[in-house]
């Protein structure tokens, strides 16, 4: 039996961990004084879904824990209990335990038995103690009771800021009804891939929920048809089945019962929508994530027929990342081939081959569109990362006795999934750092005339071809003197004349910490260097902006995607190089008189009243240029890391999109080169790392001075 | 100490040949010498064409080529071993190697044939002292009057002085 079920374990693990994340987000969103019924319902459903799955797979510890959660939540939902912060804490604790249990079952971790016992004990306590408080007519209870009445009446809660109050109220109404009247459901699904043992187990599970009637022999047919009369809601049945049966083929229909008002069947269509409901910032269902979809249901506020609801389940699919990557690679090749064709076609006479050229133009447009849509598959909103930080901030702030509010801006900003996964750890570290070192204690803040509650702002935005993520706090800021003296102690090369920027960058040195006390949050000096290294590995850069007493802002600049780049190809000698467009401000043909030398060493060029250092690409790369005089070439003005440099090349070749290929997969890293690409004629061209070139120049200028 | 180590390494690689009973080797020429590499490491053989230079690379790394979308570095063995005349024409041969996932091309004078060597045809590498580094030489194969220097190409290519791999800095 277990061998058959094992193949579904992975799906359960994935879904359960997604659901737990959702639960955390929802819990943190809860307003202590007037919890939104929709939010409570969502948390209840999450607990319920996990319970259903855990039960099916025999993870009794998880099932027990979620059962307790569920019963407490159910009371909250019905207004029998009022929410207090203690409960939220207990819920979060329980969710942590669930995560541990989940890891334990998937063989990735161990359960802390004490913690688990503590969590369940706390839940039990809350159940009993709060039950007595019920009688006390507090103002809070009254409001929630009123809200409950509203829901029972099925009227719309106009003040609820939720986006679909209509459907949520209706579904909760039917939940009341469906739990009271036994309903007969007709269940249809494909059992082609299911073994006999799994089927038997499934049928016993179902039989436990009510009276089950097997309409055909599942062993003989590909599809199975069952009739179930039960007190349970359709949602429950769905969950019993969904982990085992392919949800696409699963159809559950409530059989019309004469006494039942026709309106009650309709909400059945809403059920899957509610079950799969997603928080407004979209933590679970984005792009390739969720097996079920809510989009189509969300856009149909009118009650749909049950059939329609079942078919819309397939509007999103779970695809393995390898398949997507393979597709991206293939499209990359297609773009190269298309560019190759375009280059060949530019040599033929347009008059004779007009139709061919039109076709090629069409091909170019289609290729671009295809590329764009394929790339967008990998794109995900950054809310995936951001959504975990309220929890981090809450926990760490509580541990440190600080009051901190976390603001997030631009959660919808999309970036590559690979980046999302890799940016989480560095960001967590930066936030912990801000909490520990940045934000002062409430007393100190009040003494300084600041509000007692500190603010950490997470902001994501697109800037040109890159994405910028900022972590800023209104805390103490960095102390220049302290960092400098600490750096001196550690024997780092520092001087009083260093710019603020350079001083701030010292905190990224390995083992650097200015705190006297090492806490378990941070202060050991490990971490910031890892942050910097991780971000550099992603092709990104870190910048710090800070003023003493005002706060610190750390900006991370990352490339939007790791695969495609807009660039300008330039020629030096017989070689072509690609310069990323994001670094280029302009290009110009210099006059002989524009170029001057400084002390016979450095060359500078005057551009719009500004003197910029000149770097000759052929000198840096050791090539033989085609031109002999500087004014025969072209100067490209690069702007990287805040400083400008004029780069001398022979000619400009053209502007294209380039598919970035790694040099490192078969070779090693090359100084001044960030990667390679394949040109239209099939040749390889190196992509220049403008930032490295600029800093190279800076270094040589310093050496010369 | 140094000598015993090299000796141990030599007999190790010899036994690795013997493990695979009879092995097939691709024989190629560098100047007047004949070399053999494990045929299973060879992905394909192609001509020498459009190559892109790499900045500040050692002289024997000729550059990069596009092999159906994969960017492959090319090493000229003639320069590396200081053998044969270095010129490039339509007869120049590039052997594309696949060394545990990494693809590298080597330029040689010519490829002669594929030779099946029995265990008894392979002799251990004699000690040359400091004059010749024998670490990557698996043994010497004899076929009639020919002598093949059998190279553990993977070991050779991953050596620090080849500059193909990332150095830990």
TrEMBL record, chain A:
Stated role: Involved in the transmission of sensory signals from the chemoreceptors to the flagellar motors. CheA is autophosphorylated; it can transfer its phosphate group to either CheB or CheY.
GO molecular function, a single term: ATP binding
Keyword Phosphoprotein appears in the UniProt entry: yes
Record domain Histidine kinase: where: 354-562
The protein's name in its UniProt record: Chemotaxis protein CheA
Bias kind Polar residues: ranges: 281-299
Phosphohistidine: residues carrying this PTM: 48
Listed SUPFAM superfamilies: ATPase domain of HSP90 chaperone/DNA topoisomerase II/histidine kinase, CheW-like, Histidine-containing phosphotransfer domain, HPT domain, Homodimeric domain of signal transducing histidine kinase
Compositional bias of kind Low complexity: 306-316
Recorded coiled-coil stretches: none
Enzyme class: transferase
Domain of life, per lineage: Bacteria
Name of a matching Pfam family: CheW
Span of domain HPt: 1-105
Region described as Disordered: 279-316
EC number: 2.7.13.3
All copies of domain CheW-like, residue ranges: 564-699
UniProt keyword list: ATP-binding, Chemotaxis, Kinase, Nucleotide-binding, Phosphoprotein, Transferase, Two-component regulatory system
Gene Ontology annotations of biological process type: chemotaxis
UniProt catalytic activity: ATP + protein L-histidine = ADP + protein N-phospho-L-histidine
Record's GO cellular component terms: cytoplasm
UniProtKB/TrEMBL annotation, chain B:
PANTHER family: CHEMOTAXIS PROTEIN CHEW, CHEMOTAXIS SENSOR HISTIDINE KINASE-RELATED
Tagged with keyword Cytoplasm: yes
Cellular localization per UniProt: Cytoplasm
Species annotation: Nitrosomonas mobilis
Protein encoded by which gene: cheW
GO biological process, one term: signal transduction
Keywords: Chemotaxis, Cytoplasm
GO cellular component: cytosol
Domain CheW-like: 22-162
Protein name: Chemotaxis protein CheW
Major subcellular location class: cytoplasm
Keyword Lipid metabolism set for record: no
